[in-house]
Write a structure and sequence with these properties.
SpoVR-like_C; five-stranded mixed β-sheet; SpoVR_N; Spore_V_R; 28 helices; alpha+beta; SpoVR family protein; 4 domains
Length: 661
């Protein structure tokens, strides 16, 4: 880095000190409670490196980072992509701003980051790893550990990288719904029984002696029928944890499984720990990005954190973020959070109105003018424009920040640039009340008879009002934001979508499903039904959108083989990729490995008949067992009774720890 580059970074950092400070203050006024954030100014190449490293400055040496860096650099060079921000889940969090971005982008990133830091700190799924992460230090220690092994002349670098490759192939095969805990050591763990024949073969005796002393009948009686206790006793989702406890390495020279070397055991465990650290970010991608987009928009646009000469640039920035094609977590999350807010605000208004004497859910449409109600919900003039009403603001009003008002009247704070300083959380909630915003003007009137009846049924008969105006004036404007904060604490993407992706949301936002059709040999829109849209999205986010694989037996068929099972959800595995993965698992188990799954079988005749009848063919679901012994693959059909425990009945919605249900 040249001296000019360093001075330029320092100059930009100086310009961003005030926006960073004020963004944090505004975030806290809005009810957020973020980790402290350290902001760093970096250049183009440094940004590409950080993206490649997953948001951290140092990771263990491996070829994957170089590949990721090259892909990121080419994407930005040839496709025009732009990295707006990187922030990591840490305490304090670290956020990186690219020096070449304009001020509008920098402010947008800062407001976005403050919301991310709040989500990291307050969402319970991040607490499954650690209540106060020191991630940068942890990842640096891991890097140093791997570097030490690489520098050891007795250990081949190629062996280390190959070992890491095997582990990374399974990095999503952890139990991300349970708190992280180090894998048990072999000494304290129940060990698979193993095959007696394998044990006898390890004894240095001749075949003749072995057959005389340990004849076939005796061996079969000891081995039993395979129906005894298995390890694990229940399917184990943490495949990496099971391998860390029970796995062995395959030794090519002896052709047998041997205990892990110390470096193999430690590298496996540290990579498993990293997988648990990154899991919450994958579990909450839609929620987290939507949360950050919501508060970025609220601060930059609604609260005019972007100056007048920056707003067009910011609008372009937001359009790029929300307008990217495909399944866009920013857009989906942003719209769902708005829906959570609007729905809770509407319920609060309806609850108040149903307490008015003479108003019932049956006569609601005839007795309540919802246009007049919405107009009465407009923020008071002194809240909508507190600077113009500075002298009229009441310091005893809960919507007014008493200390800030006194400082503003003394000329000690810049309320022209930051009018929000004059208001409290309650005041800002009224100032930005969602139901009166132009884009949501029809939401209150969209209430259905079914919703009115449901609210009335569970409404306590308290706080009666004599008039509609009295009820509206008593509406709690913070209800929507309070509900958002509650949801932010406990949900992940699957439960979030399950709870809030309703018929109303799907219809309002024009969501639909599409499928590949065999009859037309292309993709077609297939449904606009909320249940279908929800199920499609569930499949995208359950288990990070990856196949759910669990350990079913560590002593499969009494031969010390590992049996994995694909918990089939209607989407079949790519068999070739499954085979490649089994080859990796073999290296971590050291003995033959098998996988049972379900495939959809269709013949050309079935497809042709369905095409003539203008319908989709009905595939046959067939259980398969794929076995790899280190050299060859075997595939056999399984009877229906052997796949009952993995057959899909519906999408698995059970993604919360039991105590949170």
């Amino acid at each position: 880095m040249t001296t000019n580059d360093r001075f330029h970074k320092q100059r930009v950092a100086g310009q961003l000190e005030e926006p960073a400070h004020e963004a944090n203050a505004l975030a806290r006024k809005l009810g957020l409670d973020p980790f402290d954030v350290n902001y760093w100014i970096i250049d183009y190449d440094e940004m590409n490196e950080l993206v490649a490293y997953g948001g951290f400055q140092r990771r263990y040496p491996h070829w994957r980072w170089g590949m990721s860096y090259d892909r990121q650099r080419k994407q930005r060079q040839f496709l025009g992509g732009k990295a707006f921000e990187i922030v990591n889940n840490d305490d304090p969090s670290n956020a990186f701003l690219q020096v070449s971005n304009d001020m509008a982008d920098q402010k947008a990133v800062i407001t976005h980051v403050e919301a991310h830091a709040d989500f990291f700190k307050n969402n319970e799924w991040f607490r499954l790893f650690d209540t106060s992460p020191d991630a940068a230090a942890m990842l640096e220690r891991h890097a140093e550990t791997v570097e030490e092994y690489i520098s050891d002349p007795d250990i081949s670098r190629e062996d280390i990288e190959a070992w890491i490759d095997h582990i990374l192939c399974l990095e999503d095969n952890i139990d991300q719904h349970q708190p992280f805990a180090p894998a048990e050591s072999e000494d304290g763990a129940e060990t698979p029984a193993g095959d007696i024949t394998e044990t006898l073969e390890s004894l240095d005796v001749s075949e003749a002696v072995r057959d005389q002393v340990f004849d076939e009948e005796w061996r079969e009686s000891v081995a039993g029928d395979g129906d005894g206790a298995t390890v694990p006793p229940e399917p184990e989702r943490d495949v990496l944890g099971f391998l860390a406890t029970h796995g062995k390495a395959y030794d090519e020279e002896s052709g047998k499984a041997v205990g892990y070397e110390d470096w193999q055991q430690e590298v496996l465990e540290l990579l498993r720990k990293e997988a648990h650290y990154f899991a919450p970010q994958k579990l909450t991608k839609v929620m987290n990005e939507g949360w950050a987009a919501y508060y970025e928009s609220l601060m930059m646009a609604d609260e005019r954190f972007a100056d007048a000469d920056e707003f067009i640039s910011y609008a372009d920035h937001m359009a790029q973020v929300l307008g990217s094609p495909g399944l866009n977590p920013y857009k989906l999350g942003f719209e769902l959070w708005q829906y959570v807010e609007n729905r809770r605000n509407r319920r609060e208004v309806i609850e108040r109105l149903l307490r008015v004497d003479g108003v019932t859910w049956r006569n609601f449409d005839d007795t309540v003018d919802l246009d007049a109600v919405r107009d009465r919900l407009e923020p008071a003039p002194e809240v909508a424009d507190p600077v113009s009403h500075l002298d009229a603001l009441d310091p005893d009003d809960e919507r007014v920040d008493t200390e800030a008002l006194s400082a503003a009247r003394d000329g000690d704070i810049d309320v022209e640039s930051y009018p929000w300083k004059l208001l409290t959380y309650e005041g800002l909630a009224e100032r930005h009340y969602s139901l009166v915003k132009p884009q949501h003007r029809g939401f209150l009137k969209a209430v259905t008879k079914q919703e009115l009846e449901q609210v009335a049924r569970y409404l306590f008969d308290t706080e009666r009002y004599d008039a509609i105006e009295e009820a509206v004036d008593d509406v709690d404007r913070t209800a929507g934001w309070d509900r958002m904060h509650e949801v932010r604490e406990s949900h992940n993407d699957v439960t979030f979508i399950d709870a809030f992706l309703t018929d109303e949301f799907v219809e309002a936002n024009d969501y639909f499903t599409y499928e590949y059709t065999h009859t037309t040999e292309d993709f077609r829109a297939t449904s606009t039904d909320a249940a279908d849209v929800k199920k499609k999205l569930m499949l995208q986010f359950t288990n990070f959108g990856k196949p759910t694989i669990a350990v079913h037996d560590g002593n499969f068929r009494n031969r010390n083989e590992l049996l994995l099972a694909h918990h089939y959800n209607g989407v079949q595995l790519d068999i070739e990729q499954a085979k490649q993965t089994l080859e990796r698992v073999f290296e971590l188990w050291g003995r033959p490995v098998a996988l049972k799954t379900i495939v959809k079988e269709l013949s050309d005749h079935d497809i042709e008949v369905a095409r003539r009848q203008d319908r989709e063919p009905e595939p046959t679901e067939q259980g398969k067992l794929i076995r790899f012994d280190g050299e060859d693959f075997e595939i056999e059909d399984l009877p229906d009774e052997e796949i009952e425990d993995i057959t899909a009945t519906d999408v698995d919605y059970d993604t919360k720890p039991d105590e949170w249900l």
